[in-house]
Recover the amino acids of this structure.
């Protein structure tokens, strides 16, 4: 979802001032075993600051909490906010809140 505003240089041209990225219901990537797919941590093994065992434990904790508090209750009927960003010149104007409200309204409409 994008939020646009007229450009200060040319008001007839709109520019993107904020965006939100949502994961829609039923779009979760799962493997043949039904488990949620996560990129293998070994792709980070060349980084000096990558400590794979703690990273693996952290991701397991996140997935366990997601399953307990969301998946087991709502199943595939989840609308998940992946990212929200607003240009600094447009902070404190309610644009990010409006994008979040859009997602909450969509979630309510979808049940």
């Amino acid at each position: 979802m994008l939020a646009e505003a007229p450009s200060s240089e040319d008001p007839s041209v709109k520019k993107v001032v904020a965006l939100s990225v949502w994961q829609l219901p039923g779009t979760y990537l799962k493997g043949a075993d039904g488990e949620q797919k996560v990129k293998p941590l070994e792709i980070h093994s060349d980084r000096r600051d990558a400590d794979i065992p703690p990273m693996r434990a952290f991701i397991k904790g996140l997935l366990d909490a997601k399953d307990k508090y969301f998946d087991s209750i709502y199943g595939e009927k989840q609308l998940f906010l992946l990212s929200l960003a607003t240009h600094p010149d447009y902070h404190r104007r309610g644009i990010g809140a409006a994008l979040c409200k859009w997602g909450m309204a969509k979630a309510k409409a979808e049940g």
Observations:
- Strands lie at 2-6, 14-23, 80-86.
